Amino acid sequence: MTTVPLFTAHNGFALPAIGLGTYRLDGDAGADAVAAGIGAGYRLVDTAFNYENEGSVGRGVAASGTPRGDLHLIHWPNPSQDEYVQAWAALVDAQSRGVVRQIGVSNFLPEHLERSERETGVRPVVNQIEVHPYFPQEEQLAYHREQGILTEAWSPIGRGEDLLEEAVVGEVAAAHGITAAQAVLAWHVARGTVAIPKASSLEHQAANLAAAEIVLDDAEVAAITALGRPDGRLFDGDPRTHEES
Ligand SMILES: NC(=O)c1ccc[n+]([C@@H]2O[C@H](COP(=O)([O-])OP(=O)(O)OC[C@H]3O[C@@H](n4cnc5c(N)ncnc54)[C@H](OP(=O)(O)O)[C@@H]3O)[C@@H](O)[C@H]2O)c1
Predict the structure, then answer these.
(1) Atom of ligand 1 nearest to the CA of 48
(2) Residue among 51, 154, 161, 169 whose CB has most ligand 1 atoms within 8 A, to mutate
(3) Tens of pLDDT, residues 28-67
(4) The model scores a pTM over 0.85
C-alpha cells in the first residue's frame, strides 16, 4: 500500500498529502466509490453541505469497514460570505464541546484568517482553497506556511481537463514514467499542499494516491509552477464572491 506523507499544522495535527474529493460522488455509485477509495488506502475524505452527498459518503465509510477513528472526514457547512466570523466562532464552540476534533476553513483570504483569529483567539488548522498549476497561489501558500496553516488544494488537477494536456506536464510525466495527473499531484506534494482529487473509478483513485510517493526535483516543480497566470482560476471562484455549489 502507498505510504502517504503527512503534513503538519501549527498545533501538531497532521493530514495525509492526498485525500479523496467527493464532488458529484453521490447515490449508490458514490457510496461504492468512497468505499473503494478507502479500501485503496485513502484516509482523508472531503465532502460539503452543498454536495448533498453526506449520506453516500457515510454509507461508503461504513461499507469500507475502516474504523471511523482512522479517517479524516472533512465536512464543510455553507455560511454566507458575510457570516464567516460567526461561522468560525460556532466551529470554535463545537470544538470546545468535543463535537468535532479539528476545525478549519475554506476560501479564506489572509484578511479573513487574521480577523477570525483576532476575534476568537483560535487559528484554523487548514484552509481549503483553489490551487493547481494554472493558479499556484504562491503568496497565499507562503502566508499559510508562516502561520502553520495547512493548505488543502481544491480542483488540484484542474478538473482533469486542459491542464493534463500541457506539454510541460507531459514532459515531467514521461521523465518519471507516470501519468499527467500523477505529475500534477506530485507537484502538490512537493509544495507541501494537501490535494483532494475527485475520482470515481478505482483506477484513477489508486493512481492518484500512488502519486504521493513520486518525488519531483526543484526544476520540475518550477517548470510546472510556471504554468501559473493571474487569471488562472478555473471558474469564478474568487473568495470575495464565490460560494461553493
Ligand atoms: N471548497 C471549495 O470551494 C471547492 C470547490 C471545488 C472543489 N472542491 C473539492 O475539491 C475536490 C476536487 O476538485 P474537483 O472535483 O473540482 O476537480 P479535480 O479533483 O481537479 O478533478 C476531478 C476530475 O478529474 C478526473 N480525474 C481524476 N483522476 C484522474 C486521473 N488520474 N486521470 C485523469 N482524470 C482524472 C475526474 O474524473 P473521474 O471521476 O472520471 O475519475 C474528474 O472529472 C472536489 O471533489 C471537492 O471535494 C472544493
Answers:
(1) 47
(2) 154
(3) 999 999 999 999 999 999 999 889 999 999 999 999 999 9
(4) yes
